[in-house]
Amino acid sequence: MSHVFGPVPSRRLGFSLGVDVIVPKTCTMDCVYCELGRTTHRTVCRSRYVDAAAVKRELEERLSESQQLDYVTFSGSGEPTLSLDLEELVAFAAEVTDVPVAVLTNGSLLGDPAVRRALAPASLVVPSLDAVSREAFERVNRPHPSLDPGLMVDALATFRSGFRGQMWLEMLIVKDMNDDPAEIALLADAVERIQPDRVQLGTVVRPPTEKEALPISGDRLLEIASELGPRTEVIAAPSGPSQLASRAPVVDRIVEMAARRPVSSIDVARVVGTSQADAAKLLDSLVREGMLELVRLGQTLYYRAYLDRERP
């Protein structure tokens, strides 16, 4: 299963079956907070990265399993709208399941009519917008040189006006990078223009690409939410166990999750249906066995899979 992964617990989407149509780490940006590490191929040129027929087979197989799903979500190793197969695969997913189909995107290519067509069959599109000024955009997102934040706001507004599904605009605030009052005012103006169904506001909660990408305080996050308007909700970290039974071996599922993004004991507890304490014990054993490495962000412990070149 190289293209379909999970289900994984999502702060925004509940239990999500992921579909990855990009090879690591291909993106239009190199965001300082990205949990997937540095972008190794920064591009705005759309191409084919996966075998679409193989993705369809994997998706059908995983959907045939008896499992709790809230969304089928196109996301993963980079920016999904770079894939020329996205239109075909989103339409296929929408046809073969009643589970809502979501696409997570950084929104950088929404100015392209072909990209907007590719997203049309989705039930939910979640683009991101972290900055409007060129200075903050460069600091936080480290974009491809051709990208312009003002044009991205234009494209987001155009997409919202023609899209029949839900559009939730995600914003991630990094301390001393895009949290000053002038930038927040620009973001508030952009929200008013774009008119998303929701604004989902967050800060750094997982180990970021760059150590200087620090979270802002909860109080400041609430202040910014009030400035962005009534559509805005603060996205909290996941908590609490659930009862999702995994058909795949537990260890394989955990390593698969940790290869996509750093995971916490809470994440694992939710996926395998156990207590957080038992999940933490299992994760610690995988660290001792050399299958995962332990990283710390503030007071929270996360676990991620080693890349082959990093393995001790």
Rg, nearest Å: 19 Å
Distance between the termini: 26 Å
Shape: globular
CATH superfamily of the largest domain: Aldolase class I
Number of extended strands: 12
CATH architecture of the largest domain: Alpha-Beta Barrel
Mean pLDDT, all residues: 87
Give the amount of beta strand, in percent. 15-25%
Strand line-up across the major sheet: 1-2-5-6-7-8-9-10
CATH topology grouping of the largest domain: TIM Barrel
Helix content: 25-40%
Name of the top-level CATH class of the largest domain? Alpha Beta
What's the order of the H and E elements? EEEEHEHEHEHHEHEHEHHHEE
Structure description:
The structure is a single chain. The strands form three sheets. The protein has an eight-stranded mixed β-sheet with strand order 1-2-5-6-7-8-9-10. With 312 residues, it is α/β, with parallel strands linked by helices. The protein has two domains: 231 residues, Aldolase class I (TIM Barrel); 56 residues, Winged helix-like DNA-binding domain superfamily/Winged helix DNA-binding domain (Arc Repressor Mutant, subunit A, Orthogonal Bundle). A hairpin with a 2-residue loop joins strand 11 and strand 12. About 4% of the residues have low confidence. The longest helix has 14 residues. Helix 1 packs parallel to helix 2 and helix 2 runs parallel beside helix 3.
